[in-house]
Each structure stands twice: as C-alpha cells, then as structure tokens.
Design a protein that fits this description.
Elements lengths: L3 E2 L6 E2 L3 E3 L4 H10 L6 E3 L15 E3 L9 E3 L4 E5 L4 H10 L2 E2 L11 H6 L16 E7 L5 E5 L4 H7 L8 E8 L1 E2 L2 E10 H6 L1 H7 L2 E6 L5 E10 L8 H25 L4 H5 L8 E6 H5 L7 E9 L3 H14 L8 E6 L14 E9 L5 H11 L5 E2 L9 H4 L6 H11 L8 H7 L2
Parallel strand pairs: 3-5, 4-5
Antiparallel strand pairs: 1-2, 6-7, 7-11, 8-12, 9-10, 9-11, 13-15, 13-16, 14-15, 14-18, 17-19, 17-20, 18-19
Helix pairs in contact: 10-11
The structure holds flavin-adenine dinucleotide.
The site of flavin-adenine dinucleotide has 33 residues, from β4, α3 and β11.
Length: 429
C-alpha cells in the first residue's frame, strides 16, 4: 500500500488512494466521485510537522497543472498554480523583474501549503504570506470551482487565506508582488542581553531582523537585512557554499549528531557556534531570505505580542538552565506586521515569533511543553504547521474570528469531506 510521510518523518499515513490530479477538471471529478463519508486532503510539500495533511481515505498530491505564472503588472498580482513550490515561483518572478515582498527561510513549500498554515518570515513592516494573498480559486465539497477575492465570494477569501486545508482545495493563488529588490545582509554574533535590551529599537529600524539564541551561551547569531537597489556584492560561490552548506548544514549536523550521542557535551559544543564571525553581502532578495535545510529536526513555534518578546525569551533561557535541558539547536526569533487574516498567527497585532527545535531522534516533548507553558499564557498562538499541544478549547479565545471560520467551514462542507483528525482537534469539531 502506498504511503506518504512528511519532511520531518514524524507523520506517516497509508491512505486508500493517493493520486495526483493533473488539471482542475480532474481535481473536480475526483472530489465529485469521492464516496459519501470519504475524507479528502491535499498535501503540499509535506513540510508541516503537525499531522495537518493526512487523510486515511483520499490523499491528493500537488501538481502545477502546467499553467505557469501569469503576471498582471498593472495590479501587481501574480496568478500562481496552488501546487507550485516557492522556489519555482521566485524564479518566475525574478525573470520578469518582480519578487514577493517577504517570505520564510526556505522555499521548498508549495504556495498553497505555505498560506494554509500562516507561514511567515521576518520584518515588522511586512506580513506573512497569507497577508499577501489577493485571491484564490477553490474547489469546494460538491466539486464546484469558485473564485474568491475582495469582490467575489469575499467572505470565503477573507477567512480562507489561512484555511488549514479545511475549506476545499486551492487551485491557484493570486499573490501580491513588488518590483525585484536586493537585500544588504549583515550576519554577526551579538550578546543576547544587548539584543534583548534594544529589541524594540532594533526591530523598528530594521527592514528584516532575526536572531538565534544559542542555548547554554550568552550569544545570539543575528541577521539584519536592509532593502536596497544598490548593485549586488554577492558572496563568492565558494564562500556561500562554505557558510550555508558546510557550516550551517554539514558541520552543524555533525555537532547535533555528537550532541545526540553524548548530550552532556552539548553545552561545550554550543560555544563553537557563535564563532562564525561577521559577514556582509548584497544579493537578490529571494537568495537572502531563504537557505537550504539539510539537518532534520522537530519544531514548535509560537507567535506572541511583540512587546513581550524579551520577557518570554528570558524566561526560556532561565527554564533551560533550571530544568537542565540539553539543547543543541538555536532558538529562532522573528517578527511580523499585524494582518487582517482571521486565522493568521499575526491577526490584529504586531507579533514576535519564538521557534524551538530538537534534532531528529532526540526527545522533544518535555522541552516543547515547558516552552509552551511560558508562551501560551502570553496570548500565544502556535504555528498551525508546527508541533503544539493545544486544541480548540484554548485556541478559540486567541482568534477574534474563530467562530466565523468554523461557521464558514460548516456552510461550505457540512459532510466534513475536508476534515481530518488535526482539523477536528484545533477547530473543535
Ligand atoms: C525546514 C523547514 C523550514 C520552515 N521554515 C518556515 C518559515 O521560515 N516560516 C514559517 O512560518 N514556517 C516554516 N516552516 C513550516 C512550513 O512553512 C509550513 O508547515 C507549510 O505549511 C509547509 O508547506 P507545504 O507545501 O509543505 O504544505 P504541507 O505541510 O504539505 O500542507 C500544509 C497544509 O496546507 C494544505 N494544503 C496544501 N495544498 C493545498 C491546496 N492546494 N488546497 C488546500 N489546502 C492545501 C494541507 O492540506 C495542509 O493543511 C518550515 C518547515 C520546515 C520543515
């Protein structure tokens, strides 16, 4: 029997049918022909850590339908096949002189998968990807295809930009685009207390700032990216390979593997990470935003109101020492603008994000539960695609329009065709 597994290897499923619709017509037929009671889910690239994708009945795999990317330069909107991966979208946009305004740190995800879980990057003036969605096509439970944007089916568009795959299958997504730009990147280690003491000032003045606290040290690895039209001054291919592939992946992977074999060595190994030195370069935005991740891990990430970040991170630093945890993966901090997407983790507020990771094969639950107990009470909202331990009872109060979303889901799909166990848990069905 064919099986599907996610990138992290933590979610496996053997549905009755796995198929890849190669056109919108084929997709509609699949939905129409599904037997009563059969559940249908569409996978993206499987980069979610939560069991948000699986169906035991019909699992659909993405395809770009061969449609290509259509650019409307008057409206600054790109029509993108929902199953296209961000890497390919970036190439299409760059070739035409455009870019996405902001994105996360990898480009392996599909466009539909990214927006469906509220995927985001960093930058206090920029929203996550769902906030850049001007419209989409959706195949609903009865197999109809509807256009959703600010003028047509506006309620479905408003609520469905982060949809958890629970409203139907997205066929295309209209993404807002901007003229291509470059980023001047400065990457350097800084004292953690220096970053936390000046956090508000740093994130307010930077276009894109993020940092990684290295557990068991007083150091933060910072990345500060400034938007520019200045000519590129790229890293040499060798320097880039050395820094992004060798140091951030192979060498880091070895450090993690040694730490997994002998956890007591982790604090000593951690002191090697901040010694990477200062780097500066200017490259096309999508080259700077995203990197390759070859080391496998499990991850939890929470959004909190951005002014609570120093307090939350200080509590995590204290907890790691108090509980004598051994953590080989840096803790990542990012920020985004507020947006108006009902199930977005930044809905209605500027947010700071804290992401904790554990190397594959190491137990993560104790660490993640401790972190969750610190950030959830701070109006914390877990990333829908990353591990967390919450259900609808607690999530409902964090989202002003939660009931609107569940009412729309009920109206569009009363037979629960697009519902799975994870969706039941987080929406309280
Ligand atoms: C190495 C790594 C780095 C990451 N970096 C970031 C980051 O920087 N920022 C961040 O916020 N997150 C990040 N993530 C999380 C990731 O962006 C999200 O989990 C995202 O949802 C994955 O996209 P995907 O294409 O793999 O979708 P999947 O995980 O396969 O699916 C996610 C959801 O989308 C739904 N879906 C997919 N296609 C469709 C469709 N056509 N119609 C309707 N629903 C659909 C699925 O049913 C599911 O509900 C990272 C994950 C990994 C493993």
């Amino acid at each position: 029997m064919a099986r599907w597994r996610n990138w992290a290897g933590s979610v496996t499923v053997a549905p009755t049918t796995i198929s890849t619709p190669r056109s919108v017509d084929e997709l509609q037929l699949t939905i129409k022909r599904a037997a009563p009671g059969q559940r249908v889910r569409m996978a993206g690239s499987g980069h979610s850590f939560t069991p948000i994708v699986p169906s035991n009945d019909i699992l659909l795999l993405p395809h770009d339908f061969g449609d290509g990317v259509g650019i409307d330069s008057d409206r600054m909107i790109a029509r993108v096949p929902a199953g296209m991966v961000l890497h390919d979208l970036n190439q299409h946009l760059a070739a035409a002189g455009y870019a996405l305004a902001n994105m996360g740190d990898i480009t392996a995800q599909t466009v539909a998968g990214s927006i469906s879980t509220s995927t985001h990057g960093t930058g206090l003036r920029y929203t996550g990807l769902a906030g850049q969605v001007a419209g989409f096509g959706l195949v609903t439970a009865n197999g109809d295809l509807i256009e959703c944007n600010a003028r047509e089916n506006a309620d479905v568009w408003r609520l469905g930009r982060v949809g958890l795959g629970a409203l139907g299958i997205l066929t295309h997504v209209d993404m807002r685009i901007v003229p291509a730009f470059r980023l001047r990147a400065i990457e350097e280690p800084r004292r953690l207390h220096d970053v936390l003491d000046n956090f508000d000032e740093i994130i307010e003045s930077a276009d894109h700032f993020e940092f990684y606290w290295v557990p068991h040290t007083k150091w933060a690895l910072t990345k500060h990216n400034t938007r520019t039209q200045e000519p590129a001054s790229p890293r040499s291919p060798r320097a880039k390979w050395l820094s992004k592939t060798v140091l951030e992946n192979y060498a880091f992977g070895v450090v993690c593997a040694v730490g997994r074999a002998v956890p007591s060595l982790i604090p000593r190994l951690a002191t090697a990470l901040p010694s990477s030195g200062r780097q500066g370069f200017t490259e096309e935005s999508h080259e700077v935003f995203a990197t390759r991740r070859l080391v496998r891990f499990h991850e939890m990430e929470y959004s909190i109101p951005r002014h609570r970040l120093p307090e939350a991170l200080s509590a995590i630093v204290e907890m790691v020492e108090r509980e004598k945890l051994r953590i080989s993966f840096p803790v990542e901090v990012r920020v985004t603008a507020a947006d108006d997407v009902p199930l977005s983790t930044s809905q209605g507020r500027e947010s700071a994000y804290i992401a904790v990771h554990m190397y594959k094969g190491m137990p993560y639950e104790e660490y993640f539960r401790h972190v969750e107990s610190i950030v959830a009470p701070m109006n914390g909202r877990p990333h829908w695609g990353k591990i967390h331990f919450q259900g609808a009872e607690t999530l409902r109060s964090q989202y002003q329009h939660f009931a609107d979303f569940t009412a729309l889901r009920e109206r569009l799909d009363p037979e629960r065709r697009f519902v799975n166990g994870y969706v039941e848990r987080v929406l309280g069905l």
